[in-house]
Amino acid sequence: MATATFYIVNADSPQASAAGFEEYVLFLIRHFVKQGAKVYLQCHDKSHAEQFAEHLWQADPDEFIGHNLVGEGPRYGTHVEIGHPGVRASFNRQLAINLADNQTTFAQNLTEVIDFVPSEENAKQRARARYKHYRQAGYQLQTIEIQYP
């Protein structure tokens, strides 16, 4: 059964800032790749996807993760594929991490989706709409509050 996990970002957490959130997403990517998952990262738009790819290129050599934008890279892909609305993930992805506010259709053929509930009220409402969509699509849902020191 397909699952969707929503990570709750508290307003007073380090992940509430843009830089802290991006670092947390990188932590999750590393975690899932170490477990052998092929990850699809859904960004807001093409510019956001390119920025995230560039951030991955800046990683320390011992933390580097092979990645590519949709349509680029080797034929069978790298550990991480980065896309945005309007492009399709490769067929060989098991897990998606959604950073797009209002997009869920990319996840139709994936068995696991990671999504986020930001602390800002409008973003929280959009997250609730995505949660409802996943539930209607038959995903098993869970929420996890991000733990931080």
What report would you give on this structure?
It contains three helices and seven strands. Strands 3-4-2-5-6-1-7 form a seven-stranded parallel beta sheet, sandwiched between helices. The chain has one domain: DNA polymerase III subunit chi (Rossmann fold, 3-Layer(aba) Sandwich), CATH 3.40.50.10110. It starts with a strand and ends with a strand. 30% of the residues lie in helices and 22% in strands. The chain is globular. The longest helix has 17 residues. It has 149 residues and is an alpha/beta fold. One of its GO terms (molecular function) is DNA binding. Its EC number is 2.7.7.7. This is DNA polymerase III subunit chi.
Keywords:
149 residues; alpha/beta; seven-stranded parallel sheet; 30% helix; globular; EC 2.7.7.7; DNA polymerase III subunit chi; DNA_pol3_chi
Name the structural class.
alpha/beta
Beta-strand residue fraction:
15-25%
Low-pLDDT sequence parts: none
Number of strands: 7
**What's the N-to-C terminus distance?**
33 Å
How many distinct domains? 1
- Could you name the CATH homologous superfamily? DNA polymerase III subunit chi
- At the third CATH level, what is the topology name? Rossmann fold
Secondary structure layout:
Layout: E1 3-8, H1 18-34, E2 39-42, H2 46-57, E3 67-69, E4 80-83, E5 95-98, E6 112-117, H3 121-136, E7 140-145
Parallel strand pairs: 1-6, 1-7, 2-4, 2-5, 3-4, 5-6
GO molecular function, one term: DNA binding
Keywords: Nucleotidyltransferase, Transferase
Protein name: DNA polymerase III subunit chi
